[in-house]
Amino acid sequence: MEIFWFIIISTVLTVFFILDGYDFGVGIIHLFFAEKEKDKEVIAKSAGLFWDSNEVWLVTAGGMLFMAFPIFYASVFSGFYLPLIIVLWLIIFRAISLEFRSQFKYQMWKDMWDKAFGISSLLLALFFGIALGNIVRGVNLGGVENGISTYEGHHFFLPLWDSSFSPLTEHPGIIDWFTIVIGLITVVTLAIHGANWIILKTNSSINEKLKKVVFKLNTILAVLTVFSLSIWQIVNPNLPIQIDGNGDGIPDVTDEEDNA
To answer: What is the per-residue pLDDT for 260?
Structure first.
């Protein structure tokens, strides 16, 4: 049953990033490439049509996670409390910016919410990528000694970063240079997604420019991906053990809980 719910939740999250990912990308493109007011309005409207319904998938995934894996849900919301609060506020600001932008005709008002929309979209993409980076790197739940997990309960708390800013320490923070790389990969990927959405759905005057931007972003994405794959083994040396299933040095949490 656990595998069933894992597949369902993973599918829902994948659908969320596919459907809502272009919203983040549109915001990133809006921040860096939309200069004319007409282009800004067209781009903002292209994202404003569906963003609220797309985010239902994220709420659904959270509800399923709470129902199917309550201990994991509690652990995540405890250990990653700071970034989750930041993400929550960014989601709020992003929603407000889309709704409030057109309420008044003053240019200063529009400029303020345009910046809020772009910056919140950029940071959300970055933080979701950092979350993926933590999964790839591995997270110390509070019971790792000399690379071997002793699994101490469900209560841990991670700082945003530590003084070394390195994933190679015994207790790395949530943000380090490796998770930043994964975050940048996510930002670039969603920017490509958003640019393609704008090209497909609008007649904006910057569409031709965006086609060139997409080509450059694909090049950057390829470089970042190759770099991340080349350092993955250094950051997570237990990866071959986890993949081939030998499990040497990795405790069976279920057995430990049963013995307790």
So the answer is: 45
Number of domains in the chain: 1
Query: Largest alpha-carbon pair distance within the chain?
Result: 66
**Strand-pair partners of 144:** 149
Here the tokens at position 115 are: 């910046």
SS3 5: helix
Q: Which residues contact 185 (CB under 8 A, 6 or more apart)?
A: 129, 221, 224, 225, 228
SS3 148: strand
Report the distance separating Cα 108 and Cα 147, nearest Å: 54
Domain housing 93: 2-259
Burial 226-237 (b: 16+ CB within 10 A, else e): eebeeebeebbe
Q: Rounded distance, CA 239 to CA 241, Å? A: 5
Q: How far apart are CA 117 and CA 56, in angstroms?
A: 19
What would the pLDDT profile of 182-192 be if each residue is shown by its tens digit? 999 999 999 99
31: CB partners within 8 A, 6+ apart: 114, 115, 117, 118, 119, 121, 122
Which segments of the chain have a pLDDT < 70?
A: 48-49, 140-156, 238-260
